[in-house]
UniProtKB/TrEMBL annotation:
Any Pfam family hit: Pyridoxal_deC
SUPFAM superfamilies, sorted: PLP-dependent transferases (SSF53383)
Membrane-spanning ranges: none
Similarity comment: Belongs to the group II decarboxylase family.
Keywords: Decarboxylase, Lyase, Pyridoxal phosphate
Protein name: Pyridoxal-dependent aspartate 1-decarboxylase
Lineage of source species: Bacteria, Pseudomonadati, Pseudomonadota, Gammaproteobacteria, Pseudomonadales
Domain of life: Bacteria
Entries under InterPro entries matching the protein: Asp_decarboxylase_pyridox, PyrdxlP-dep_de-COase, PyrdxlP-dep_Trfase, PyrdxlP-dep_Trfase_major, PyrdxlP-dep_Trfase_small
UniProt cofactor(s): pyridoxal 5'-phosphate
Cross-referenced PANTHER family: CYSTEINE SULFINIC ACID DECARBOXYLASE, GLUTAMATE DECARBOXYLASE-RELATED
């Protein structure tokens, strides 16, 4: 016995073993698999959001830039991942992680995902996917019916028609929005006369042929940043993603939308698409989709609804009325890794008219030939995993009734949290929840009183101080790792549209309780008493006193 550590060797035999399914239940790989499963189960049962360790320290574990010359054992790599990766990951499934649109997953997604990984199907082509292609078509049909509610005859005709597609599966909402607007662009400048279409001749020739000075996409100021990416990638330019003002509830102002369309028309800029939002990222509000559909029809524009977040509200009989008008959309984006509760990353877009997707159809002789059933002919991405399997599993295991419970609970929980915030004298609710997202901030009662009587300059000074405090509280709470709320910047009308930094909360995790929400407020209140922020708290207090005193003096003189 020399005690010398055994090392891995690269050889033909070793490579063969790596690619061979282990036969014995007690094989090394089987034991590794069991160990990983136990470790992950323990991680997921923890309620802490993140270990309090600085990111610069974590970076040291991943500082090697050279590809190793010699191999290591799978067991070594597994232990490295458990110690350095898992242990330092963000626990997005924690019930106190309420800051982003990432939540707990149904636990059945973990074992079922092994099927998808083991089969390693590529959905670009039926030759590499077989049964996964009709399953993907079925999932697109199910979501299409959720949105558009066509009858059975419609889906029997179109769902598996090899010449049409009811939608496109994508890696997320960004690519889904891009796909929808790609379709909109190509249909806005179709082949006509001597012009062979924008898809063939490009944007410059399309604009020249149709006598346009540009093409625009209109969306509210609360539109997702992916739409700016789309305007860039599609060659329109970011300036031609035209923002439209919103009302006090962060919904698009339809009068302003129509005025903007008329203005663009006078400038010979084609209104290519109008985008409604069903669940804004920052505040969870829903645009007046019905009215927007009418304006889109008036100007001959493609009407797209970004329902990446709010789309599953359609499962709820109580709240689906909030989506009224979505059925008039030409295309609708869903993010399955949000409120359909499947793993990262999968989104999809569905088209009201099965022929719309043909505007972006591509073919290649070696893989996606014309007339084949391949869904890759109408997707932006080529090789794609069979994520539709997990969506279909969720739709079958949870079913409409299960999703309805999740949606209803999330909205009810958000309303409860809003009531809790309103009951706290030193917290201020900034936006009321329409779905299950809300914003608020720490704002002492005296400061709230001062803000209610302050002029625009005083409001600016008070909010500037509050912004520094909010940023400190959010960052410190995140670093402590027990809970997490995100932060964003809004321009409330009641504060003369001055940019205010606020806490943003997303209540989609069914494991989040009222007690957890109370603890989050309690921790924020305690953080406001910490030494690191006391100088700013004193300045804020003095400013509030000065505003109230000045107001009182003015009232007495009047």
């Amino acid at each position: 016995m020399t005690g010398k550590k055994k090392s891995a060797q690269a050889s033909v035999e070793a490579m063969y073993r790596v690619f061979t399914v282990p036969e014995a239940p007690e094989s090394t790989l089987s034991r590794i698999d069991q160990n990983i499963s136990r470790n992950l189960a323990g991680f997921l049962q923890e309620h802490i959001v993140a270990v309090e360790r600085d990111l610069s320290e974590v970076e040291k574990d991943f500082s090697d830039y050279a590809i190793p010359e010699k191999p290591i054992f799978v067991s070594e790599q597994a232990q490295f991942l458990l110690d350095k990766l898992v242990a330092n990951s963000v626990h997005t499934a924690s019930p106190s992680f309420i800051g982003h649109m990432t939540s707990a997953l149904p636990y059945f997604m973990l074992p079922l995902s092994k099927i998808m990984i083991a089969l390693n199907q590529n959905l670009v082509k039926t030759e590499t996917s077989k049964a996964f292609t009709p399953m993907e078509r079925q999932v697109l049909g199910m979501i299409h019916r959720l949105v558009y509610e066509q009858d059975g005859a419609f889906y029997r005709k179109w769902m598996h028609d090899p010449r049409h597609a009811l939608g496109a599966m994508c890696s997320g909402g960004t690519v889904a929005n891009l796909t929808a607007l790609w379709v909109a662009r190509n249909n806005a400048f179709p082949a006509e006369g001597s012009f062979r279409g924008i898809h063939q001749e490009g944007l410059f020739r399309a604009l020249r042929y149709y006598g346009c000075e540009g093409a625009a996409i209109l969306v509210s100021r609360r539109g997702h940043y992916s739409l700016r990416k789309a305007a860039d990638v599609l060659g329109l330019g970011r300036d031609f993603l035209v923002p439209v003002d919103t009302d006090d509830d962060n919904r698009i102002n339809t009068d302003a939308l129509r005025e903007k369309c008329l203005e663009l028309h006078r400038q010979k800029i084609r209104v290519m698409a109008i985008c409604g939002i069903a669940g804004t990222t920052e505040t969870g509000n829903v645009d007046p989709l019905d009215a927007m559909a009418d304006i889109a029809r008036e100007f001959g524009a493609h009407f797209h609804v970004d329902a990446a977040w709010g789309g599953p509200t359609l499962f709820s009989r109580t709240h689906r009325h909030l989506m009224r008008g979505i059925e008039k959309a030409d295309s609708v984006t869903f993010d399955a890794h949000k409120q359909l509760y499947v793993p990262m990353g999968v989104g999809l877009v569905v088209f009201r008219d099965p022929s719309l997707a043909s505007a972006v159809e591509h073919h290649a002789q070696y893989i996606i030939r014309k007339g084949s059933r391949d869904l890759g002919s109408t997707t932006l991405e080529g090789s794609r995993p069979g994520m539709s399997m997990l969506i279909q599993s969720g739709l079958r295991i949870l079913a409409r009734e299960g999703y309805e419970i999740l949606i209803d609970q999330g909205i009810d929980k958000a309303k409860t949290f809003a009531e809790m915030i309103n009951a706290e004298p030193d917290f201020e609710l900034i936006t009321r929840p329409e779905l299950n997202i809300l914003t608020y901030r720490y704002c002492p009662e005296k400061v709230q009183q001062a803000l209610s009587v302050a002029d625009s300059l005083q409001v600016e000074r008070l909010n500037t101080s509050l912004n520094r405090i909010t940023k400190f509280l959010q960052k410190t709470q995140r670093e402590r790792g027990k809970a997490f709320v995100s932060r964003t910047r809004l321009e409330p009308a009641r504060y003369f549209n001055f940019p205010c930094i606020v806490f943003r909360v997303v209540l989609a995790n069914p494991l989040t309780t009222k007690e957890i929400l109370a603890d989050i407020l309690k921790e924020q209140r305690e953080l406001s008493a910490e030494e690191g922020i006391q100088d700013e708290i004193k300045i804020l207090d003095q400013m509030a006193d000065a505003v109230l005193k000045l107001h009182q003096t003015g009232a007495q003189q009047a």
